Amino acid sequence: MAEAVAIVGIVASIASLIDLSSKVVSRLRDFTSKSSDVPESFRSLWIRLPLMTATLQRVQSQAEAGRLPNDVTKALKAVVDDTFKQVSTVQICLSKVLPPDGASKLERALKALKSLAKEDKVQQALEKIHKNNDLLVLHQTTRHVDTGDRILEGLSKLSVAPPASSKSFGVCLGRAPQVAADAFIGRNKELQQMRDWLSPKIQPDRQPIISIVGMGGMGKTPLSLAYIRNCADDYSSIFWVNAKDESSLRQSIADLSAVVFPESASPAA
After folding, report:
1. What share of the chain is helix, strand, coil (3-state, %, to 5)?
2. Are strands 170-172 and 237-239 parallel, antiparallel or unpaired?
């Protein structure tokens, strides 16, 4: 019963936050279309809120399907409720300075918006919104890692004999997105940091794991592929696993198994 109440609670909270966010985005979009001099903090909010909505919709689907533990549901609801509070603060402040549709005096409103962006209350609200969004994204990322661990644990229990000797499979990108090498420029600092953390030459007795976390479109996939191209010689085998969702992850693990253990793959019908 308690779990059902928690699920209803987080679903309702997410629905309210998505509705409020859409109103704020609509207001900012309308004002931004009239002026290119909108403060960066509000322009960033206008961009990030729709991305946060997409993350919230995934969490909502997971909650409705009963795939979230009760303690996680409660923790996520607290994050959602706090985000709603912060977005409400921003909306109230915006409503005082932004003119309604068709109103004049745009220049005066723009000055008021710039002044508003410097207020401590608004800055704190914007910072909390961004931090809460990062928590939601991190939860979604670690969920895929946890799912992968469960699948690998299940595979380890299968009665499949390991290869008699080590074998190199080279670079197997499988269904990885196609990103041209010349489309990736710079980010040498990030590549070197990844190499410092991941290179088996530095820690030959273990293979560290990292997560590249960020909003969609920030270049996580091109960065990963660039690391593979630059550091392929450090590894005997590299596999690309699609962890977009549980279904994709299971399919990738099945594809990987067919490559590593071809003799155990089912013959084509």
Report:
1. 65, 0, 30
2. parallel
